[in-house]
């Protein structure tokens, strides 16, 4: 009984500290700046970006692919690890679910930002054609969003009931948590339904998650473009998404552990395990990268040759090696040693992996477009290159801040670590109930 | 129009032209008019026609069946002209980069931005092969990758082979541009600066008289819309008036041939050829055939060229597909 009270005490949502307030304020500022820039984009058109007829997709689309990638972590941590019986991941499930929901919401918004006529967004539903991969994306992203929300919400039901009691002195909070808990009382029937639903959702989310990122890969692979014309793209994107997602979980769990004093719940062992998982995922992704570049590079056909030369030796070479070596090989080496799997190094590696993953998306989207089949001629010199404009950067940072704000707000009002599940695992849940 | 129709001969010529039997027939008919009295007595009025083989035969008027008009009352923009398959042939041997095609295209579609619909590329397959000029426009593919990927049916293929775009439907996702291997699609990144707006509105009024809607996909660029994709449309508005597309008539070297694959005829205004024969004799080919997009634009190889490649270089300005008014005199011309 006392254990449980301590547990709830530790895990219940806490008010923002000063630092938390500054952080939230900062995010809101970035978002406001992005909104202002987006207003200019609406007014003047996409001319405010550096995109032009050749580099027709840019940082927005790479950012979109990044968000889709990050969101895959929800299914990795909650579904795959849950179903494989890896109980150690329980304290990390909520974090990854929150990240998944935040990322998928921002992925949807980012796609709208990239549209030339966002006022016609409804045409996707009124005039949608199923043969277009964009419609597949619309279908699968909305499905994934719904399942992710449910997968975030269901495990929260008992926690909300606990919080209702915990905040009994604070009327409004208690009322809200009570409503959100949907009258959870922990009866046997409820428990049965609850466990079954989560299990079904966990199973359902895996194919949808694979679907969402495969479709995003197909978005590129279905075009006639050297560099995207690859059967490897689906698995390559999924492997990359797991890397990015695991990196994001590590980064955020490190921050939350520090800010919320969760050292007892997110232990060094968790960092160790996440480090091992990240190594595995990085190796897998490296394998797909070798597939992606070695085969066309061996043949060096004219079109692929131009593209790969630019990546390996040309203007993208620095970024390319930074991403491959810095974002994949270095983390693999560091995380292979037990010393490298201490919380801080794991955190640093997690962060570079996320940064590398972001730039990797940029490298997938931009260079290909600048290497079309017919030469780029008869257009201004500036159209031969692409680097995002300041406004494009601000809008992009706005979407990243948006994702972080969603995470921050959810973390403020929702227990970061599932109270009910943790209690169950510690064997102190049953005694409390009746 | 009514007066014309009272004369069956005129009527035939009229519909014949509409059917795209083109100027050559007109010339042939004029010649026929001189011979006709000699060969036949006044029993029945006859008419001279060209067989698919290219020989002239004379037949009684009663035997001639009227070919339906190119565009009848229930013409639907998304369906196109019935029983047509428009094709273009570009003779690379004749191109000397005069760029009149670009100028005419830009002018008639009010393109003043950087993104011309028609480009003349400086091409060279390998170091040792000869360089040549290659005009490139929308290929109006039979299996258009752009149409496949469009999520809202904004770009569509008509039964006459034209691939057009509905700027009132386009959501500006630019997926069609990513999918097009010929890089012919362009995007209105900002409010299009289309020069003299009154001229556009005059044209639009005229169009409305002719029963068109505003922003009709078969009259692209009138006016262009911010945030949507534009591209070469083979000038259906000119075909509609039984005229050739602007690039064809503007070219001083007769590089472009336009016609109907079902009729197996293409013309550049001065000369008319059997499409199949021309392609066979001159070894016609299509761009990036290996991608399987089945373009409607055929190229004749740049062999036996009229002029040297170098002669076209004087017109070459590296970064300008659209001539921009820079001096005050130029501005006045606009």
Automatic annotation (TrEMBL), chain A:
It is a multi-pass membrane protein. Keywords: Cell membrane, Membrane, Transmembrane, Transmembrane helix. The keyword Transmembrane helix applies. The chain crosses the membrane at residues 21-42, 54-83, 95-113, 133-156, 200-221, 233-256, 277-296, 316-336, 343-359, 393-414. InterPro entries: NrfD-like (IPR005614). Its main location: membrane. It is found in: Cell membrane. GO terms for cellular component: plasma membrane. Belongs to the NrfD family. This is Polysulfide reductase. It comes from Muriicola soli.
From TrEMBL, chain B:
Residues 129-160, 161-190 form the 4Fe-4S ferredoxin-type domain. InterPro entries: 4Fe4S_Fe-S-bd, 4Fe4S_Fe_S_CS, ET_IronSulfur_Cluster-Binding, TAT_signal. One of its GO terms (molecular function) is 4 iron, 4 sulfur cluster binding. Keywords: 4Fe-4S, Iron, Iron-sulfur, Metal-binding. Signal peptide: none annotated. This is 4Fe-4S dicluster domain-containing protein. It comes from Muriicola soli.
